[in-house]
Design goal:
Shape: globular
Structural class: mainly beta
Largest sheet: 11 strands, mixed
Radius of gyration: 19 Å
Number of strands: 15
Strand content: 35-45%
Distance between the termini: 12 Å
Length: about 220
């Protein structure tokens, strides 16, 4: 929840500059978007949780679990039987269903399965893929009426390496029927200017099937 708020605040801060620097892409609306969106039936645990050898959810390596949880594990990282009730009260093992399937060329990219899609009181839609332990760049979309502006925000692990890359071309197709029902089903392909090597532009393409949340 805290991370979602930070992402949303960041998008509001930078959305105006996107409109100035990124090329506006006209949205193509269709009734019934075809294609394979079966990825939306797959799920993962939240960061720091993984399936252990005993088949149950437990703490992944890296120290992301509540500190108290680590005191309830055996030497193999398996939850002690007499501690399981309290352990699973402390650890969030909710199934997080994937809502994006995509490919990208960008610095510090290793894949992502999640995107936040939020509608403001003014009716604008802000979308942002979530970063993780291996992926530090985020695709961010600003949708206003029939126009979409896109940018990639790099939150680099290298000091001073953060940057924003702006869209130069591309397309986005959205299922209008589902949009009216509060769901975003779309195909997209965006090209971004690579300031470091203009001969090798960045790209981000894929499919989204996500619930539109209200800010």
């Amino acid at each position: 929840m805290k991370f979602s708020f930070i992402i949303f605040a960041f998008i509001i801060l930078f959305s105006k500059s996107w409109g100035q620097a990124s090329k506006p892409i006209k949205i193509k609306w269709v009734n019934g978007l075809s294609g394979d969106f079966s990825f939306s039936k797959k799920w993962s645990y939240q960061l720091g949780v993984e399936r252990k050898k005993d088949g149950k959810a437990g703490c992944a390596d890296g120290g992301f679990c509540p500190e108290r949880c680590y005191k309830m594990l055996d030497s193999n990282g398996i939850v002690l039987k007499d501690s399981s009730r309290i352990f699973y009260q402390l650890l969030d093992t909710t199934h997080q269903f994937h809502n994006i399937k995509c490919e990208a060329r960008c610095y510090e990219w290793a894949g992502t399965d999640f995107m936040e899609v939020t509608r403001t009181k003014k009716g604008k839609i802000f979308c942002s893929t979530l970063i993780n332990e291996a992926t530090h760049c985020s695709l961010q979309l600003n949708i206003n009426s029939n126009i979409c502006t896109a940018a990639i925000r790099l939150n680099s692990i290298v000091q001073g390496g953060g940057a924003t890359y702006y869209c130069t071309s591309g397309f986005i197709t959205i299922d209008e029927q589902l949009w009216k029902k509060g769901k975003m089903k779309t195909k997209f392909n965006f090209i971004f200017k690579n300031k470091d090597d203009i001969q090798k532009p960045f790209y981000w393409k894929g499919k989204i099937f996500a619930k539109i949340k209200t800010a």
